[in-house]
Every structure is written in structure tokens, then in C-alpha cells.
């Protein structure tokens, strides 16, 4: 097999020495003498891939009518061949958002002189990959090669990959204008990994758009000109609509920390899922999709022409023209984007809960259910291709320190015997892979024999979970896992304590504020029970076993399962507690903003000696009473403060007491009828519809906007209040999508299934 791989690499190198795919782009002109714009990659006979900013019209900022494409590196031709190219319909993606987009696909008016044999290649891990870049910078329009190395995800949004140049201090050895759109070749394999998009000439590095990102925007390019297995298999992709509606789940935080290699995570993470737990399974698929450049739903752009905002996924990317918010690239100026255009992230509820895995952090997802881990099978060609690509990637990556993150779904359901499956997985880890092993509920994948062992039904004495715990995981895994859960419980307790402090401040001022959660004590009890079951008593005495007693490996696997479910439950509780704290702080901030606004408006009157004006006194008193005398509906207080602000604007606009009285007309000694209604003063008519805090108010007659946010310095100090008696007003308010608080089950000694670890609900 290694000989076949070497032969393939040799053929690939010969193939990519072909010069036909490296093209130069010029500004439109029949003579072909236009300025050099940059580079491109010829795909097939008549498609050219490049960056949108390379060819964008400098005057309009939009797509050009046409550009000239020439082939300066072809040998044996009497003259340099040229073609006219236009942007292919549906393949114009200007830069936008967080360093996103910036792609264009051109179609030639006639086929190229020599068809291109090139294909783009998905690679599992870019980190450390040595690369070659061929561009057409100024003064060297005939072409120049640079060398460098990929450094992993880069840019504001991680759609791109950073490239560090080998000799950036040498004159003329930096990425500059003319390299944008150039292909990036992996040195040693000759595979085309992406195209150059942006450079920092002073720092000596740049960025490329990798193949997976290109395939995300241009599905047809991915199908026709891309090789290498996708990171996410088709059955496990998630639609943008499902992502937008999804609620966070505790397991997603565990997976994200593993993806980011955060402290406290391990090279082999284990995640148990109940066989019928559809919500947990969908949550897992979503967080893995969010970590993949090609399938991430976190893409939202506004199309050209002011049409309705259109959100794109891999399935519909490239279906419409799009406008740009202008990421600076090669000196192209930014075009600002109005937030009111409707640009939004693809999974807002998860983003609020802090679940935002980095794009490109997942290398490969393997669903080995029913497939062999040892050999390629005709009935499972995709698994065989993915495993082969993974082994080759590990062989190339070993010297450069890359560590691909691989999620193995159905690890306990493969056609390989448990002992052999664990051996293969161990070999992948030894070669440099980081694994997330997703195992179903151990009580369902095997049965317990008379001797306490479990039979997987596959001819092995024990099931996969047993072999994994016994042969693959370190002996102290359970103890370290329990310590990690204890740390999260401590964070839960601290979050709830902060929420109670905020609640005590809010409940005196606002009617029916959100209530803090009260999961901490229950979660701490779980850890005590788990520590007791592990024989640690919370701390492992000297000489005590780290896991259940030797000879009870079956109980060891079952105990790991309990730890997995307990961690998911604690994370769910923690996310709900954090959401409650956010809501409480939002209410407190709104109340303080109103107090600050009231004080600031009163100061404006004082500055013009109008504080005692009859119109102002009544409106101020009403607002002050609502804000300071006791709990009030926040909407009522907002209306009263706004009514006072209107009075202040009217009085200060005229600049004198008497002018203010004269403008009032009949009954000028007090505010007008509209102001009386808004302030709730005696003699006012019925009030208008209640205004929801946080929504925009219509401007007044002078065009002055509604309640502004003032700096903290303008807020009135708050009198501290002794804390309430313990345990009061702690009924959980945060609810999941069904509106019912979820109560995870403690992992007791008679555990027969997972505690409820459903979604944590929208923050």
C-alpha cells in the first residue's frame, strides 16, 4: 500500500508541474495590455477561480463586465494566448462579514489552449504543511514562486488559513499585490490546497481560502473539481434552518473544548449517548457541523440589489449574487455594512451560550456503524477512503506536529471485533490523531453474563466499552473526569451566587424579574455520590484504587458512562444558570440606564435654571417615584422617563421659563395632554399601548430619538440592601423549548439510564 501511495504522489507531482492551470488576469481590453490584476486557477477547459476583489470594478465596486485571462507559462506557443472571461452567474461572492467570502468563478469565451488537469484537494489538517505559491507581482509579471508553511485557521472568522513565508525579510520575498487568486500547492504532494486571498506585507504572512471554504460557496466546484473526503459525511450534515432553531446542549460545550484543545481535555474524549436520545444526537451533529468550514451554518449574506437577506449553506451557496461589506484585501477599501441589513449568525442560541467552535477545528467525522476499521469494504467505500486519507495525513503530519481531530461515531457498533477496534483506534492516537469516541448506552449494546461480563454479540468476551476502558484509556481517567465535573459544579455554584446577588438588587426595583436557578446543591450531591461510588470519598486516599476495584472492569466502563451523563447534565444546568444571570443583569442594566437618563435630563434643566418649572416637576416626580419608591413595571418606568425627557427637550429648546409656559398654550402651567398621558399625571386621558423595553421608539416632533444609553457616571448610586434569607426566591425561571424546566437525574447507585440531558433552552 505504501508503494502505491508513493506512485500516486509521483504522478501527482508530474501532473501539477503542468503550467496550463496557472493563469494571469488583466483588466479588460481587446489588446490584452491592461494592468495585471492578479492570478487565477484554471479548472477544466473554461473555468477560472480567483478572488472577487482581484477583478472588482474599481469605480463601482461591483463585478466587472469582463477581464482578460492569459497563459504566460505555457511553452511552445508562438505567442501568449489570451481569452476574455466573464463572471459565471451565481458565482460572485465579494468579501463580507468576518473575513468571509471573496471568491469569483469566471467562464472563458472559448476553451483554454490546453485544458487544466488540476483539482483542489481537501486536507484534514493544514497546520505545518509546506506550500509553494506562484503569483504575478508588480515588476515580475512573468511570475514568481514563494515558499511558506500553513499555520492553521486565521483571519477574523477562521474561514481562511494563515500562511507564514519562509524568507519574509529578503527583498521581494513577500506576498504582495498580484499574488491574490494564486494557487497554493502543498510541497511534496503537489496537491492544490486553496488560493491566496490576503497579505500583510510588513508582517510577512498572508491568508489563503482553503478548498473546503471554496466548496462551501460553490457547490458545483466541490462536486467537479475537489478531491479528498469531506470532513462531515452527508448523512450528518445540518441545514441552516435547523441550526438557527437549535437550542444549546451540555455535550456541545464538552465537544467544543475538545476541538479547541483546552486545558482539562484529553487526546481521547469519550461521549456516551442514549440509543434513543435524538436531541443529544442532533446536538452533536450540529456542533461538529459548526466546526467544519464546508458545512458550518454560520453564514449569512445580503444579496445584491437590496433583496431580502439570503442565508447560504453548502446546498445553495452560489445560487444568487451577493453584496460585500468589504474586508480590506490588497489595498481594496472597506465598504461598511449597516447592521440593519439583517446579517445574522447561523446558530444564535448556541452563540449566546458561548458554543462557537472554530471553523476548521474538526478534521474528520467517521461513522463506522456496521463498517470495518481494519480494511476497506466495497459496501462502505466512503469509510475506506476516509480511513486511507487519515492514515496518509498522519504520515505526512507526524514531522510537522499537526494533530487531526477525528470524531468516531458508532465506535461500539463497527463490524470490527472490540479488541481489534480498540487496537486500531490506539494506533491512530499513537500516530498523532485526537479522538472523540461516541459510544451508545452500554446497557443496550451488550448483555451481562453470570460472571458480570458483557457480551457484545460479536464473538468477543466483552463489549467495546469494556475494552475501551480497559485497554485504551489511562487508569486515572475516572478520577480526572470526576475532578473536571467538580470544577464545573463549582462554576455553577459561583454563577448562581452571582445571580442571587443581582436578583436581590433587582427585585426591590422591578416587578417580576427573572429568578436565579438553584441547581448547585443538587449537582454537588451528584459529585459526592459519584466520588463515593468510585471509592474516593471526594479525594483519593493514599493507596486507594483510582477506579472501582481491580477485576471489576465491567463496572469501570459503567462508571465512565455515568460520568459522561453527569457531565452533560451539569453543563446543561450551568448554561441555564448563565442564561438566568444574563437576563437579570439585562434588567438591572435597563433600570440603571433609566435612572441615569432621569438624572441627566434633570441636570440639563438645572443648567438652564428650569428645574422648578411646573411642567418638569410633575413629570420628574412621576418617573422618580416609579424608579425609586418600590418595584415597578419596567415598561411604565420607561414611559415616564421618556415623557420627562420630552418635557426637557421642549423646555430647553426654547431656553426660557416663560417661553416654555407660552408654548404650552391653554393650561400652560403643566404639560400637554400627550405628555400627561405618557407620564401618568392626574387629569391625563387613558394611556397608549404599553411599550416593550429594548424596542425602538418613534422620534418626537423634532426628530430626537428615544431613550439613549448614558455612561455609568450618570447613574444614581444604589443603596445596598442586606441579603435575603437563604433559599428565598430561587425557583428556576429559565426554561427549555417546551417551557418546562428540565431536572437532570442524579447518577445514583441503581442507575439504569442517563439523567435528562436535553437541550438547555435558548439563552
Strand proportion: 15-25%
The helix count comes to 18
CATH topology of the largest domain: Rossmann fold
User: Mind summarizing the main beta sheet?
Assistant: 6 strands, antiparallel, barrel
Main β-sheet, spatial strand arrangement: 1-2-3-6-5-4
Overall average pLDDT:
76
First-residue to last-residue Cα separation: 51 Å
Low confidence ranges: 8-16, 299-344, 443-460, 537-545, 547-551, 659-763
Task: Indicate the topology.
Blueprint: H1 2-16, E1 22-27, E2 36-43, E3 47-50, H2 52-55, E4 67-70, E5 82-93, E6 103-108, E7 120-121, E8 130-135, E9 144-154, E10 160-165, E11 183-186, E12 192-200, E13 205-210, H3 211-217, H4 219-225, E14 226-227, H5 240-245, H6 250-259, E15 268-273, H7 278-290, E16 300-301, E17 310-311, H8 348-352, E18 364-367, H9 381-397, E19 405-409, H10 418-430, E20 434-440, E21 447-448, E22 454-455, H11 464-472, H12 477-506, H13 520-534, H14 553-607, H15 614-628, H16 634-654, H17 657-663, H18 673-679
Parallel strand pairs: 7-14, 15-20, 18-19, 19-20
Antiparallel strand pairs: 1-2, 1-4, 2-3, 3-6, 4-5, 5-6, 8-9, 8-11, 9-10, 10-13, 11-12, 12-13, 16-17, 21-22
Helix pairs in contact: 3-4, 6-7, 6-14, 10-11, 11-14, 12-13, 12-14, 13-14, 14-15, 14-16, 15-16, 16-18
Biased composition (Basic and acidic residues): 442-454
Organism: Streptomyces himalayensis subsp. aureolus
Biased composition (Low complexity): 749-763
